[in-house]
Amino acid sequence: MNKQTLSNLIALGEGFTTEFKRTGTSNMGREICAFANATGGIILIGVADDGIATGVGNHITSNPKYSPSPVLPNRQSRLI
Looking at the domain assignment, is residue 50 inside a domain? Predict the structure, then answer.
């Protein structure tokens, strides 16, 4: 997804298949399951409910309980 496509998606706002989350939450798994059990959709983490892109911090360096996976050390996650 390029920057223009992301901007267009945010401009459309939240709806049945689009959800904005300022940060990840403890209920994120439930929300992902709800989307998967419905028609699918997109969850944008780092976007406030009003559509302002707030971004997210680096949870690996800012939270000592997280560390890179020793099983797949070269694998990178991609969050959009």
Answer: yes
